[in-house]
TrEMBL record, chain A:
The lineage of its organism: Eukaryota, Metazoa, Echinodermata, Eleutherozoa, Echinozoa. Gene3D superfamilies: Ribosomal protein L13. This is Large ribosomal subunit protein uL13m. NCBIfam families: rplM_bact (TIGR01066). Keywords: Mitochondrion, Ribonucleoprotein, Ribosomal protein. It holds the Pfam family Ribosomal_L13. It comes from the Eukaryota. Belongs to the universal ribosomal protein uL13 family.
UniProtKB/TrEMBL annotation, chain B:
Keywords: Ribonucleoprotein, Ribosomal protein. This is Large ribosomal subunit protein bL20m. The keyword Ribonucleoprotein applies. PANTHER family: 39S RIBOSOMAL PROTEIN L20. NCBIfam families: rplT_bact. One of its GO terms (biological process) is translation. InterPro entries: Ribosomal_bL20 (IPR005813), Ribosomal_protein_bL20_C (IPR035566). CDD domains: Ribosomal_L20. Gene3D superfamilies: 6.10.160.10, Ribosomal protein L20 (1.10.1900.20). Belongs to the bacterial ribosomal protein bL20 family. One of its GO terms (cellular component) is mitochondrial ribosome.
UniProtKB/TrEMBL annotation, chain C:
InterPro entries: Ribosomal_mL43, Ribosomal_mL43/mS25/NADH_DH, Thioredoxin-like_sf. It comes from Strongylocentrotus purpuratus (Purple sea urchin). One of its GO terms (molecular function) is structural constituent of ribosome. PANTHER family: 39S RIBOSOMAL PROTEIN L43 (PTHR21396), LARGE RIBOSOMAL SUBUNIT PROTEIN ML43 (PTHR21396:SF2). Pfam families: L51_S25_CI-B8. The keyword tRNA processing does not apply. The keyword Lipid biosynthesis does not apply. SUPFAM superfamilies: Thioredoxin-like (SSF52833). This is Large ribosomal subunit protein mL43. Belongs to the mitochondrion-specific ribosomal protein mL43 family. SMART domains: L51_S25_CI-B8 (SM00916).
Length: 175, 167, 184
């Protein structure tokens, strides 16, 4: 009998995931995170049983919005009092707290009920790659970032540039 | 659920107003506030509850199916496959387990489920994807019918079994 | 309506009773009835005609027969091996109906009569061991250090290079380029 109880503990145990937000789009990172926080990656998922896992996000200050979204995206807030309306562009919002863009994106993607606060408590955000050791010791797997980390041309070595497969052959200039 | 009040109503002589009310009030015993004891409010609440339970019987089937699908897709992703190819390719193997049983297997017999996922993923790679892999430029040359694809996968299997012939 | 106001339980038997041998769960029967009252007539008939046979057939059941004028509505009080006590009203029942009531109590397990959630039950739902988060994880995670450059947890999207392999695909492209070069 007791062995079955420990089996139950193993089935419902929470594990910790790490994700690196370096040069990643915040929305797509938040999709990956919210699924894990809800526990939708487990075959035992049920909306009433709390089976979500922990997620540690590093390098949140390095997230990358596409195009002009740092200027165009605006975070609205109203305090409820007259004149309490405020609108903050994403770049200002990001400067105030570099973890907030991801946090807000994830918060919006979780189910809007009493489970949401509990799930958000299992999200650990860090602006850079310095994570306290006790948190890092819990991590048992890393989530693949949603896109391949883009590199500038200057960040490639000469060897890589030479070996890169060429899709077409540039013609000889005529001059 | 046993409705004793109706039986008593038939049995009792005289006006049946009391037992008619008891019939509704018995069912509202767990409700909140006036919906429990005040008849005119309770009768509305009980009738609405009947409507909800009738609708719920139909809704439940869809909800359960959605839950099973979600569980299957979560389980199958651990083996590197997605839900659609998994279900479709199991059918091609003529494995006709329904979603309820598949999700149950995923939880309680995980090794069996792993075998099912491997079967499906093998079938998946034999199909259209194999032809795409041959033509990574992204177009399929010539007429592509199901027979062509089958012949192609057979050729590929022969090549993989006899590497000297390919070179 | 499957509601929460009534208790419910899963299907169970008393210590797999009847798998090897059968132990009758009924321990005591107390007949409480009146010697004179008309409602007790069936019980009195049962006691005169059938109770001796019942006692002979079921020596494990202790019988108490307690006639008293205060019992204007007769009843049986049954006590079971697991400690439950159940009383059954017998007023205006005839002899055969009393007999069926007694037989019912004799064959019952003494468990509470509640709504049963599922018509099937097993103590061992899993043969291979139920799923747990570490069941299908790659084993090299045991020695991995985080953050790592090769994360493993991802939504599987089957891309062309997943089938062919990225290096093979690059080789293939290089071959295509060589052919084009030689052709031009």
């Amino acid at each position: 009998m007791s062995s079955r109880i420990t089996q139950q503990w193993a089935t419902f145990s929470r594990i910790w995931y790490l994700i690196d937000a370096y040069r990643q789009p915040p929305g797509r990172v938040a999709v990956a995170i919210s699924k894990v926080l809800q526990g939708k990656h487990k075959p035992i998922y049920h909306p009433l049983s709390d089976v979500g896992d922990h997620v540690v996000v590093i390098n949140t200050s390095q997230v990358a919005y596409a195009k002009d979204k740092w200027e165009e995206k605006i975070y609205y807030h109203h305090t409820g009092y007259p004149g309490g309306f405020s609108e903050t562009p994403a770049h200002e919002f990001h400067q105030k707290d570099p973890t907030k863009v991801i946090k807000k994106a994830v918060y919006g993607m979780l189910p809007k009920d009493l489970r949401r606060r509990e799930m958000m408590r299992r999200l650990h955000l860090f602006a850079d790659h310095d994570v306290p050791e006790d948190i890092l010791a819990n991590v048992s797997e890393q989530i693949k970032p949603p896109r391949v980390v883009p590199r500038a041309l200057t960040e490639y070595t000469q060897e890589e540039l030479d070996n890169f497969p060429k899709l077409w052959l540039p013609k000889e200039p005529k001059y | 659920m046993v409705h004793l009040s109706l039986v008593r109503m038939i049995r009792s002589r005289g006006p049946d107003r009391y037992w008619r009310k008891r019939f509704y009030l018995d069912q509202s015993t767990q409700y909140f506030g006036r919906r429990r004891n005040c008849f005119s409010v309770a009768v509305r609440a009980v009738r609405r509850a009947w409507q909800n339970s009738t609708a719920g019987r139909k809704k439940k089937k869809g909800q359960m199916r959605r839950l099973w699908n979600l569980r299957i897709s979560a389980a199958v992703q651990e083996h590197g496959l997605t839900y659609g190819p998994f279900i479709g390719n199991l059918l091609k193997h003529n494995i006709r387990l329904d979603r309820k049983v598949l999700s149950h297997i995923a939880i309680y017999e995980p090794k069996t489920f792993k075998c099912l996922a491997e079967l499906a993923s093998q079938k998946h790679k034999e199909g259209l994807l194999a032809t795409l892999a041959k033509n990574p430029e992204g177009f399929l040359s010539g007429p592509v019918t199901q027979d062509d694809l089958l012949a192609e996968s057979v050729r590929k299997l022969r090549l993989s079994s006899n590497p000297s012939a390919s070179s | 309506m499957a509601n929460r106001q009534f208790p419910s339980a899963f299907l169970k038997s008393v210590l797999q009773n009847g798998v090897g041998r059968y132990v009758c769960q009924l321990q005591r029967l107390t007949f409480q009835f009146s010697k004179v009252h008309g409602t007790s007539r069936g019980v009195r008939d049962y006691i005169e005609e059938d109770i001796i046979d019942f006692a002979r057939k079921n020596p494990q059941v202790v019988l108490y027969v307690t006639p008293h004028n205060k019992f204007s509505s007769p009843r049986i009080v049954a006590e079971f091996l697991n400690g439950t006590k159940r009383s059954v009203q017998l007023s205006t029942l005839d002899r055969e109906e009393v007999s069926t009531q007694v037989d019912l109590l004799r064959t019952q397990s003494g468990n509470d009569l509640v709504r049963i959630r599922r018509p099937y039950h097993t103590d061992f739902p899993s043969i291979q061991g139920a799923w747990h988060p570490f069941a299908n994880k790659p084993t090299n995670l045991n020695i991995a250090e985080f953050p790592t450059k090769e994360p493993t947890f991802a939504h599987p999207k089957t891309r062309r290079w997943d089938v062919l392999g990225r290096e093979e695909m690059e080789d293939h492209l290089k071959e295509v380029i060589k052919q084009k070069e030689s052709g031009s």
